[in-house]
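Structure (tokenized):
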């Protein structure tokens, strides 16, 4: 009886370790959102929160619209793009590609969110598509 009880406690402890979420302080200092967008079982809202906490108080990377919407006088200045990029913080330089990739991931997956925040699996997407095709007939 004691062995069964200890085994049960060990199993519950294992599950609680895997279910543990990151603290806000950890999310602010570590780019966890990069791994989250590659995880098929991620909660969309948790990934979004991790992204927002990481970039809170940091300079954001330069985006194309900043460069394209600049006035002609700014563009005429020598090394306009490099100056724009130099003024950004180190995180903006290190994670510029991932930043843009995550923004695209958010847009792409927004229509695939279930009520609990998880994303539709490929099988669920196919079933949803089939249902839509049936409704069109």
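Design, position by position:
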């Amino acid at each position: 009886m004691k062995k069964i009880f200890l085994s049960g406690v060990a199993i519950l402890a294992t599950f609680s370790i895997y279910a543990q979420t990151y603290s806000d302080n950890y999310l602010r200092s570590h780019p966890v959102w990069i791994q989250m967008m590659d995880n098929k079982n991620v909660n969309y809202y948790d990934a979004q929160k991790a992204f927002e906490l990481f970039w809170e108080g940091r300079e954001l990377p330069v985006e194309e619209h900043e460069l394209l919407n600049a006035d002609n006088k700014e563009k005429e200045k020598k090394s306009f793009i490099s100056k724009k990029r130099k003024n950004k913080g180190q995180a903006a330089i290190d994670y510029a590609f991932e930043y843009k990739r995550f923004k695209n991931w958010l847009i792409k997956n927004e229509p695939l969110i279930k009520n609990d925040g998880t994303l539709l699996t490929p099988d669920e997407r196919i079933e949803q598509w089939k249902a839509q095709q049936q409704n069109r007939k």
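Reviewer-requested clarification: The chain has one domain: 23-136. The longest helix spans residues 2-19.
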